[in-house]
């Protein structure tokens, strides 16, 4: 018999160990999965987890994938700290990409230095508009934030499709659903010659430090934590709940919107329908796996980015569907939630024994 | 038959992580007697009863029922044996009707479902507790809910009725009614197990008693032959002072004024406040008695700022008579308010945060924050100071609020609020569920604060406590408030009438609102 | 607007609303027991792919739907173990279920994209289907539509008249009290979650076998989420779920209406309609927070673990 015994105090140790155990269990499960699919598990594991980052170019590619995921995840973590179940990073990212594109397309032939900052700012504003609508519906009109944000994701996606099929379509693009190519002045400079790694990485580092200082050193960060852990206590203490909630909503919208504009200015160079293979959804997993802590999120984000790359490689080298990435992401989250039981409970194995 | 006991529990032991709830407990009940199980909060009474009713499984020990050893694996087994239980927190579903509640729980034991409603009506009337079987629980008063619970037991072939702290939710008059019903039951041969920590009730009602302290039986007695002191000793042990007489105070000028405060009920389960008039002077303690759910929460929230009424000017603080109705809790704190809410875990303190963070929760204005950044060293200093000054038992300031016992957490919260040098302190149930040691400490802290000139308002269901520390005492019922009198001039019977909404002839206006409340 | 168009709109509205009706019914039962399962989208996708694969290989509609329901149940049990046994946060676990279901269904369905199966035929009642306007909508539907009506009636009677229906409501209101009184809280919750899974699986298979009929990645496109709104819209009452499902069905076929009326609106914008409609409904519903709370099962979404 396995029995769960509640702990007197939540275990700090298992708070850190649980994500590690979850990743470990996911790897074990993936070995079974690969074997069941008739692949050599060692080769498959190598393809999935090692070969994508076996060289310098691979590492820079990993970072390119990780940049938008991390930006989204930092923002989501702020919301989750406040117990606001915002799952709208995907929509906010798309909205950021749309707004960013609108700005960037004004500067196609310009060489002005303001073009790039304005494009990024446009992306942030786009994300904030999307998040702001959700926040308004949630905070003013009492709508459930999870449902609102998921609906906004679908609305943003359809808006993106409408934009690339309609107003933003490249008039000289042979009727492809794509915007015109952006001018050089709106593209993020590459950091290292011969790679695609752009200076969006610096924005990630900036966001990392900002979020970390905000959450652990400031009184606002403290209030957000109280709000998330215990609403009646926050109310009793006189914290301004709606303002705090609106703040984290907008901050996460800005970060996700930034992610969107970083993708179009750093990777694709134009607005296309498939700018995000679900980065905003993966960011949810990253935020949880990283324990809502910026450092943890950074590590988790790199891991999930690795899964994205591993999925691509295994499609090419192992003839496995790319969708395997989604399975592994789901499994990690499941294992994490399961392992988290160890934070609050001790597991006791009891054996049936004759009573004396 | 007569030499076989109704019930014998022997060597009952049950351990939880970190504590032994019951240690080798022995308990015997005869036919047709009312047996008291006495003990402080946390002595293990409820655990013992849950084992008898099959909710919790004992680690060791035997239960003998009418001479036969039995294993009570679940509540339906207990009911099958003729054991009925009324829990302290009622086991009723608000959204279901009386009949549905009873049918649901008794299942096949309820017999023919078509005649159930008629039988509920008949049984309830026979025992002097009339009930309408078709009403929803949410529309019943606390006393009526308790009747539902008791009738649910009576519909069985009842041989033992367990009542867990049944009087804590009743007015003194309702208590007398309950006692009548119980005596009628025992005259018919049914046994009653009466769990309480109120000595005077036990000496009035019970034929025999078992006393628990920290999970162990510390004595058996006939309460009618003992003094309250001797029983109290068995309950609390030798090393704790039981009584400390309090000096009354008259207070100075008025700090908080409430003039004709009326509110509307926001939700189905909320109470509207009706024409509340109340003054609290500096240097006095005003006590408000009342059965839970009569508007205490609403009154306290209106005072603390958790509920804001922007257009009203009914509440004023301080010498300048500044209206505070529209101010949020933070602004009111800056005017000198401190607040100890009823739920200490989940409102007074954040369960999963450590004591440093919980010290910061309401004390952030006392120099702990600079330019929006936290000053960690000062926060730790404050937490340590509260822990030391109020003798909070904890391994350290980084332990979470949830890891503290109720009494220790309450000392911490009271300490935190008092440390802000309030001019007006509001407390809800200051010592509910707290052991005697902590109770004495909290009362001392409150009295010291009063003598330093703070205005103090206390809401409690514990009449003993209110009589002990209040300088003026009144009651709240269905959103209306009674007059206030010094405890010495207020007999318990009169306070009981006030708690039931009968506010004398002090004001015809008040009487008419009460009348209306009782007619619906 | 001619009568043929209106007849077809009514017919399509019911046909399109049926999967929503099924999922919402399952989720409502689940929520009545106090469990909030946000994984409907994932379970529907799994049902859709499983039903399609089974149908593709066996050519049996019955096996297709049964297999889809089994897979839905398995998915929901995964959720149940994590939330009920291991006390995980229900919102997070529901999200995990959706993410997992999305990934796994895409993986399993890779080889079946673009494959064809025969659509589930409609069972017409020969005379009645010719009744003007409503005949086609009510009497020319496929078997699953009729089944959904049967399920609605059964569920209504169950909650109204059966004692186990009372038990579910009691467990949803206060599991601790229910357990103290000896109700099997865990068993009841497991069964309710599993019922929700079966309904989601059935609804998914309806999409891939009876509605489209084909499999494409992510084909449920938010219907699982819309169903969650529907349950709130219906205030946990069965008769209102029917109404809501068909209203959303109507919002989903706006592009057909637009075509029929020769409106010139971007199809991408029309595809947004169900989601915008959901938001509008949410706003209207949520105006009165207190009223909303009145119908919500009181313990909804709160973890509970028997301690003894």
Automatic annotation (TrEMBL), chain A:
Keywords: Cell membrane, Membrane, Transmembrane, Transmembrane helix. It comes from the Bacteria. Pfam families: BPD_transp_2. Its main location: membrane. It is a multi-pass membrane protein. The keyword Cell membrane applies. It is found in: Cell inner membrane. The chain crosses the membrane at residues 14-36, 56-79, 91-108, 114-139, 146-165, 197-215, 244-264, 270-288, 295-311, 323-343. PANTHER family: ABC TRANSPORTER, PERMEASE PROTEIN, GUANOSINE ABC TRANSPORTER PERMEASE PROTEIN NUPP. This is ABC transporter permease. It comes from Psychromonas aquatilis.
From TrEMBL, chain B:
InterPro entries: AAA+_ATPase, ABC_carbohydrate_import_ATPase, ABC_transporter-like_ATP-bd, ABC_transporter-like_CS, P-loop_NTPase. SMART domains: AAA. Pfam families: ABC_tran. The keyword Nucleotide-binding applies. Keywords: ATP-binding, Nucleotide-binding. One of its GO terms (molecular function) is ATP binding. CDD domains: ABC_Carb_Monos_I, ABC_Carb_Monos_II. Residues 7-239, 256-503 form the ABC transporter domain. This is ABC transporter ATP-binding protein.
UniProtKB/TrEMBL annotation, chain C:
It is found in: Cell inner membrane. It is a multi-pass membrane protein. Keywords: Cell membrane, Membrane, Transmembrane, Transmembrane helix. The chain crosses the membrane at residues 6-26, 38-56, 62-84, 91-110, 138-159, 190-212, 218-236, 243-261, 267-285. It comes from the Bacteria. It holds the Pfam family BPD_transp_2. This is ABC transporter permease. It comes from Psychromonas aquatilis. The lineage of its organism: Bacteria, Pseudomonadati, Pseudomonadota, Gammaproteobacteria, Alteromonadales.
